[in-house]
Amino acid sequence: MTDEFLFVDRIKQRCGSDITDSYQSLGMHTLEISNDRIVPVCELLKTDEQLLFNYLSDICGVDFFPESPRFAVLYHLYSIPFKYRIRLKCRLEDGERLPSVTDVWGTANWHEREIYDMYGITFSGHPDLRRIYMSEEFDGHPLRKDYPLRGFKDDLNPEGEPTEKDR
Question: Total domain count for the chain?
């Protein structure tokens, strides 16, 4: 085994039962994490002297509609001192909440707000979970696969689909 992948073994030793699956895709390791354990795992990855994943480069959402669980939230981490990358993945159903990692990385604030706005995924413990792109009055979450392609009908979009209120 090369030194490049020793960090994955260290994570698996330290996190054990918190990891529900592990695989490599396109040269990057992905660890699926139990939803309720995402914060402790992230804290460990950031503070462990042999890991130091001190840079959260991105958090993104994925909609697998009509599969179950419907959503995935992916955390892309980078260790600046060791030049390692890893992806953490949590799967959740529509309406299920995921703990916020804003106390671990401050930049998670904006990433989580974007996921909330575009997918409707909520993060418990987030300090300011509100829309970031769409107005508060906007109906729906545009990156969900069941969102109508033409949007919902309103004053600015007369060609859109009728909303649930209009049916």
Answer: 2
Can you tell me whether residue 122 is helix, strand or coil?
strand
Residue 91 phi, psi dihedral angles, 5° rounding = -105, 140
Cis amide prior to 99 (ω within 30 degrees): no
Look up the pTM and report it.
0.88
Classify residue 154 by its DSSP letter: B
Task: Assign 109 to helix, strand or coil.
Answer: helix
Q: Per-residue pLDDT tens for 21-61? A: 889 888 889 999 999 999 999 999 999 999 999 999 999 99
- Shared domain check, 144 and 126: no
Distance, CA of 94 to chain centre: 14
Are 96 and 159 in a shared domain?
Answer: no
